[in-house]
Design a protein that fits this description.
The protein has about 300 residues and is an alpha/beta fold. The chain has 2 domains: about 70 residues, CRISPR-associated endonuclease Cas1, N-terminal domain (Ribosomal Protein L15, Chain: K, domain 2), CATH 3.100.10.20; about 210 residues, CRISPR-associated endonuclease Cas1, C-terminal domain (Four Helix Bundle (Hemerythrin (Met), subunit A), Up-down Bundle), CATH 1.20.120.920. The protein is built from 10 helices and 10 strands. Helix 4 runs antiparallel to helix 5. It is globular, with a radius of gyration of 20 Å. The two termini are about 20 Å apart.
């Protein structure tokens, strides 16, 4: 199973060499088997990337993320027709029942708020509004008609980062969260496309200019994992070293169904569960338990 996340963060040439990714810097080079690669992040504006390499990476379903001059993720490469029954899968997606989509969104929001509660408890945040968040979690209607998601987020962020924190402000905490969200979103996007679905057609998010509506439906429960890392590691600055560290978050471990899973494997399984629910092939959803901890290192 592929598992490595590689960051190309220096001026170099990256090419294909005998089913390996060859990284050349001056007279030195390094080869990495494509079968080892899970995610490749190109994060230097003078990196040269060859078309044969990009093609082979996409054929191997490797997650490819492109960053701008500030090392912020700005886009992903997505292959066409990764699924052998792509039209059949797309037809199912187009015809997902509205009632089923609303019911799943309710479950996703419940999991998101529960994750927020568990992060506050895990980090032992003083005077955390646990009872209020539990009330919100337990009073969600289908499709979250009363916007319990938004109401919980406001008090959750205030408890986690302080009463003066404003989501969207140009500060280190917001930059770090957005960066981490994009890394996780890129992996969810890869999972969706590899299953023959399109990311534009969501179950709740319906932005006409948003090419990743379904991604941002499915990401919601996972955001709290990023939040926890940011709360522990970020204060006044979000450095290049910390960007490299947060990239490894796909390899952290979380607790699902009495087992520890790497986050990338958990995403795969939860995306499958969401799709199965929408296709009426299963009513069984997966829920992770952050109260057991989040293992950001190989502990």
């Amino acid at each position: 199973m592929s598992w490595k996340t590689i960051v190309i963060g220096a001026e170099c040439k990256v090419s294909l060499n005998m089913n390996r990714m060859k990284i050349t810097m001056g007279d030195e080079y390094h080869n990495i088997p494509l079968t080892d690669l899970d995610t490749v992040i190109f994060s230097h504006n003078k990196t040269v990337i060859t078309i044969p390499l990009i093609t082979k990476l996409m054929e191997n379903n490797v997650n490819i993320v492109i960053c701008d001059q500030k090392n912020d993720p700005v886009g992903v490469f997505q292959p066409f027709n990764m699924h052998s029954l792509v039209f059949k899968q797309l037809d199912k997606q187009i015809n997902w029942k509205i009632t089923r989509k609303k019911k799943l969104w309710k479950k996703i929001v419940e999991q998101k708020i529960n994750s927020e509660i568990q992060v506050l408890q895990l980090l032992k945040v003083k005077e955390a509004p646990i009872d209020t968040l539990k009330q919100y979690r337990n009073t969600i209607y289908n499709d979250d008609q009363t916007n319990r998601e938004g109401a919980s987020a406001r008090i959750y962020f205030s408890a986690l980062f302080g009463k003066d924190f404003i989501r969207g402000d140009p500060d280190a905490i917001n930059f770090a969260m957005n960066y981490g969200y994009k890394i996780v979103a890129s992996y969810i996007s890869k999972c969706i496309v590899s299953r023959g679905l399109i990311t534009q057609l969501g179950i709740h998010h319906k932005g006409e200019s948003n090419a990743f509506n379904l991604v941002y439906d499915f990401i919601e429960p996972f955001r709290a994992i990023i939040d926890a890392w940011v709360a522990v590691n970020i204060t006044n600055d979000f450095t290049i070293v910390q960007k490299q560290e947060i990239i490894e978050i796909l390899q952290c471990k979380i607790f699902i169904n009495n087992k520890w899973f790497r986050l990338n494997d958990a995403i795969e399984d939860m995306v499958d569960a969401y799709i199965g629910f929408l296709n009426y092939t299963s009513d069984q959803l997966l829920f992770f338990d952050l109260s057991k901890g989040i293992l950001f290192d190989d502990e």
